[in-house]
Amino acid sequence: MKNILKRVVALIMLFLLMNICSCNNNQTDTSDDKPPKNEPIIPATIDILKIGKADCIVINTGSHLVMIDTGEEENLNTIHAYMSRNNYEAIDTLILTHYDKDHIGGASDVISSFNVSTVIETQNKNTTIDYITYHNTVAEKQATLLKLTDTYKFTYDSCEFEINIPKQSKYSENNDNNLSLIISMKCGENKFLFCGDAMEERISEFINQNKTTYDFVKLPHHGTYLQNYKEFLDSVKPQTVAITDSKKNTASADTLALLYERDITPYETRYGEINISTDGKSIIITQK
Fold first, then answer.
1. Tens digit of pLDDT for each residue in 139-174?
2. Range of the structural domain that residue 113 is part of
3. Distance between CA atoms of residues 10 and 7, nearest Å
4. How far is the C-alpha of 266 from the C-alpha of 178, rounded, in Å?
5. Which element (helix H / strand E) includes 278?
6. Contact between 241 and 259 (Cβ < 8 Å)
7. 277 part of a folded domain
8. CATH code assigned at 227
9. In degrees to the nearest 10, what's the CA dihedral of 125, 153, 45, 34?
């Protein structure tokens, strides 16, 4: 009888052991898998700084930081205060849309101060002091410098970036502004567009190849009215736009009138810093 009991206990133990092993073997290692599409993406934020008629835009994708333009040298106190307030110590990618001082004036200091890993710039060279200074800083800090000659894409966390380059090496009018890089960002279902200082010729290029509508657009050149603005808005169909202007240098009345006619909400940095957050499905915008 005792032998039978021992055998029964042994069989039960064997059965339990086999089940445990089977369960362990059926487990799937999902540590490197992408989250299912129906799960929320990592929240991302976009801050458009109030620095007058100049551009500095900071995008936090969750674990990476992207800065678009660095304003002028006189804006550095505001940029440093912003970075400190948000506990940002490093920038993964700095995108310089073009070489006007209100977009690259603070670049050398930013590269030096915030451990910039990669600097992306438009294809043409420049001879201004600001350009030479920040290039020297890139070399000194051993940052990677990408001078784009074709469309460039990269992904940080749940956000996909695409940088559209100018198609010409020189433009008949407003050459410096028309050499602007145009950056699009897609986070889940939400799409954002940042236009640098692109003007009519560059905007026409973009319209001709654009097949995307955007939830939010940072308008080009501080709200200056463009002759092909109607075509541009028809192409990108934004719900909301931002304008980097100041109380001294406001957006064009014609630009604002066109936006209001189309029931497009404009946010202007002359009224304060613009803060945007997205979870991939909805966008929340505040201003302070």
1. 999 999 999 999 999 999 999 999 999 999 899 999
2. 44-287
3. 5
4. 23
5. strand 274-278
6. yes
7. yes
8. 3.60.15.10
9. -160
